[in-house]
Request: fold
Amino acid sequence: MTNQRILVVEDDTDGQEVVARMLRFHRLDFDVVGTAEDALDALNQGEYNVAIIDLALPGMDGWALLQNIQRSAATAHMKCVAVTAFHSAEVATKAIEVGFKAYFAKPLETTSFVRELQRVTS
Reply:
């Protein structure tokens, strides 16, 4: 995952810290924002390869953020990964069908999460 820049979109501060620790431990380059609106601002200002998106964000949710990313020529290339505390088989299936490259239920398991990120970004 060298040369990958990751945008983490997570509203929960504990969730932000969990993902940040995993990424930092693996020496990955990332930024963290708390809302979809902040994510869109960050995407307009920087170049990211991957977005890790919480599906249940306040305001614009993760589903709508994915649609915005997919519609923009500047970000359509990005690989997006869904995370959620509201896991179900239906949500997992829908996430992949609409364009997320991977799906994770919280709490995240470090080894499988990072391994899947590596698979998605290669």
Q: What stands out?
A: Residues 7 and 21 are 14 Å apart (CA to CA).
